[in-house]
Design a protein that fits this description.
Blueprint (H helix, E strand, L loop, with lengths): L1 H13 L24 E4 L1 H5 L9 H13 L4 E6 L12 H8 L6 E5 L3 H9 L4 E7 L2 H8 L3 H18 L4 E7 L12 H14 L3 E6 L6 H15 L3 E6 L6 H10 L4 E4 L19 H10 L8 H14 L9 H4 L3 H9 L10
Parallel strand pairs: 1-8, 2-3, 3-4, 4-5, 5-6, 6-7, 7-8
This protein binds zinc ion.
GO biological process, one term: L-leucine catabolic process
Family: Belongs to the HMG-CoA lyase family.
Pfam family, one: HMGL-like
Length: 351
């Protein structure tokens, strides 16, 4: 799996610097500068489900996984190794991960808030574990009960444990509240960059930046991602945006223009953060995939299939607030017809 991931990285590198690329789904104008391929990493099974009251049964999560996989998604965060008493919604993470591991080529990741969670991720052979760090000290103390630098020290312990066990589970340091925080207000760019570098120095394989509470705007995204990329290059792995104030997709576009080729998203835009008052859902997977494909960026995702899955999810999560826009209007009619008439090989092209 590790080597497959390396191959995946090199494929993305090959398409960067940007080139003109025509999507097989939605032939459109040539793209502006930005990677010709991008990965939409589904995080709804973790970020989404942890923030809503409904506890989705394991069988439904597995249906979700299977359908997302069938729609072409190849990176999915399946849950979090946290004590069940804290997040009963994610108590079955090991079981969901085990199912994900039966799907060929799927890179299944989990979130781990501490060393204990990391031990479980290693034990269960996750492809990747995301260790969250809040650049905001106030958010870090509220959410993780640790200062950011204590989290960095924890990552060093996790790396040592991984090396001791000979595991190939990759470690991603996820720097959250990178654009500000509801509790603390401003978070200095210099502090975000310092912590990002510290995570890598401590042994993280890669890092990502998250706008946990929806404070980012396209200009601040462009500025911070450019600086981050200049500092750590390709080890800047993923962008994670919440759509709290309606700027999620604009922020994705700004990050994509700086060369980012991987974005977290939740089907139907579910999600948020229980410790960040006011935070709401992630960018909606189906809207994001549609935007990228429409721009000519290959995601390997069958957007109509995602819309069908969203419809099923609306039944599973009856009573919960769902988000997203594409489902309301549907695909533009001419495009929908083109998709319906496309050869089967064009309806799902996994990355
Ligand atoms: Zn999030």
């Amino acid at each position: 799996m590790y080597f497959l991931m390396v191959l995946g990285i090199s494929r993305i590198r090959q398409t960067h610097p940007p080139k003109t690329f025509m999507s097989p789904f939605f032939p459109s104008l040539p793209t502006k500068p930005g990677p010709g391929r991008a990965v939409v990493r589904e995080v709804g099974l973790r970020d989404g489900l942890q923030s809503i009251a409904t506890v989705l049964p394991t069988a439904r999560k597995i249906e979700w996984l299977d359908a997302a996989y069938a729609a072409g998604q190849r990176e999915i965060e399946v849950g979090s190794f946290v004590p069940a008493r804290l997040l009963p919604q994610l108590a079955d993470t090991a079981e969901v991960l085990a199912h994900a591991q039966t799907l060929p080529g799927l890179r299944a990741s989990v979130l781990v808030p501490n060393f204990k969670g990391a031990e479980r991720a290693l034990e269960h052979g996750a492809d990747l574990m995301v260790v969250p760090l809040s650049a905001s000290h106030a958010h870090s103390l509220a959410n993780l009960r640790k200062t950011p630098d204590e989290v960095v020290a924890e990552v060093a312990r996790i790396r040592a444990q991984r090396d001791a066990t000979g595991s190939r589970t990759l470690i991603e340091g996820g720097v959250g509240t990178a654009f500000g925080c509801t509790l603390q207000g401003e978070v200095a760019e210099g502090e975000v960059l310092r912590l990002m570098q510290a995570l890598l120095d401590a042994g993280a394989d890669r890092v990502s930046l998250a706008d946990t509470v929806g404070f980012a705007d396209p200009a601040s995204v462009q500025r911070l991602f450019e600086k981050a990329r200049a500092l750590v290059g390709e080890r800047l792995w993923c962008a994670h945006f919440h759509d709290t104030r309606g700027m999620g997709l604009a922020n994705v576009y700004a990050a994509w223009q700086t060369g980012i080729a991987r974005f977290d998203a939740c089907l139907a835009g579910i999600g948020g953060c229980p410790h960040a008052p006011g935070a709401s859902g992630n960018v909606a997977t189906e809207d994001l995939a549609f935007m990228l494909e429409r721009m000519g960026v290959d995601t390997g995702i069958d957007v109509p299939a995602l819309l069908v899955l969203r419809q099923r999810m609306a039944d599973w999560l009856a009573g919960e607030t769902l988000h997203g826009t594409l489902w309301q209007a549907g695909l533009p009619r001419a495009l929908a017809a083109a998709v319906a008439n496309a050869p089967a090989t064009l309806t799902a092209q996994p990355l």
